[in-house]
Amino acid sequence: NECGSKSIAEQIVISSTADRGVFEKLLVFPNPNEGQFTVWILASGAGDAEVNLRLVNALGQVLMETKGELVQGELILPVDRSDLPSGMYWLEISLNDRKAVKKVVVE
Questions:
Q1: Which residues pair with 104 in a beta bridge?
Q2: Which phi-psi region, left, alpha or beta, contains residue 4 (left: φ > 0; alpha: ψ -120 to 50)?
Q3: Cα(46)–Cα(68) distance, rounded to whole angstroms?
Q4: What is the pLDDT of residues 53-88, one digit of tens each?
Q5: CB 81 within 8 A of CB 94
Q6: What is the separation, in whole angstroms, between the first and last Cα of the chain?
Q7: What HEC string does the chain produce?
Q8: How much of the chain, in percent, has pLDDT values that exceed 90?
Q9: CA-to-CA distance for 27 and 41, rounded, in angstroms?
Q10: Residue 71, by phi and psi: left (phi above 0), alpha (psi -120 to 50) or beta?
């Protein structure tokens, strides 16, 4: 557009001792986006494991629930929710008893 646009990839690095090795890195990009984004998780201490992902709106309504499989501690999951209206959403990622939440902005 005329105003220009930028994509920002936000990285969360979990640094507490209790979480180290579960979510070493968690990246959602691009963010903001138009409803299409990629989730990248690095959790080398988890090996091969199932990850649960939920996308929730500001009212707490669950808009998407899916599962992904860590392979040797890594998951790259493309998400296409281009049907979503512009707004702020939260992506909840859980692995065993650990949980992380990422803000996702749809323009």
A1: 89
A2: left
A3: 13
A4: 999 999 999 999 999 999 999 999 999 999 999 999
A5: no
A6: 13
A7: CCCCCCCCCEEECCCCCCCCCCCCEEEEECCCECCEEEEEEECHHHCCEEEEEEEECCCCCEEEEEEEEEECCEEEEEEECCCCCCEEEEEEEEECCEEEEEEEEEC
A8: 70
A9: 6
A10: beta
With a CB cutoff of 8 Å and minimum separation 6, the contacts of 54 are 62, 64, 65, 91, 92
Planar angle of CA 19, 25, 31, nearest 5 degrees: 130
Token reading at 41: 């998780």
Count of positions (residues) in the chain:
107
